[in-house]
Amino acid sequence: MSEDHYPERLIAMLEAIWGEGFLSPGGTDEVARVLEGQDIKGKAVLDIGCGAGGADIALVKLHGARYVTGIDVEDPVLLHARKLVAQQGLSDRIGLVKVAPGLLPFPPSSFDVVFSKDSIVHIPDKHALMQEVFRVLKPGGWFLASDWLIGTETPSPQMQDYINSEGLDFGMATAQRYLAAMKSAGFRNCEAISRNAWYRNQARIELERLKGPVGAAAAETVGWDFVEKNIGIWSNMIPVLDSGEHCPTHLRAMKPH
Question: Which of 13, 74, 135, 198 has the fewest CB atoms below 10 angstroms from its CB?
């Protein structure tokens, strides 16, 4: 059995930085920005890489999704997400499913929207992913996501140091590779919208919070050694954000009618 990349201690650390139920930046505000211009009220949504459940709760409570199916490959995040969903009384509108990497376990044309928040970075084959997203979307449906992209196909030593410090199974790709994968799958209106400028600033705020009260509070749960490790990760991340090599991005595309 492979080791979970997001054990409970890391979930607690990331929630301290990014908010309850979130394992990546921006919280509910960033979910809203990913959806900007699209009305998902009454729609069936698939969330690829649902993580700790915060985005799924936002999709239902704040944006009116009829039903959200959240999928992930790891038990700790799913257990955590299920607790939050139950606490919100949303178990009848959010289903959380463990899946194996690979083909999506749904029939064609199952969903109005496929959403993902900073999770498909863990899926290296973007062309296979986008073919599956296209297959499970209904005609006229939208792929709406954010993800962590890379500026060039070959990481610089500085970028590789950052990736190594994360210790996660990143399969980062360029915007050009994502756009090519979306178009090859048959999508139209394909866009990749850089969020680098926003996160360059945000990451500095997060680092200062880690060095201050947020880190001190988190240390009571996860230990100072783990807080210091994450301070090191953020310190490695900021230079590659500044260079543009690390580029958080919004991705969107429509399956034609």
Answer: 198
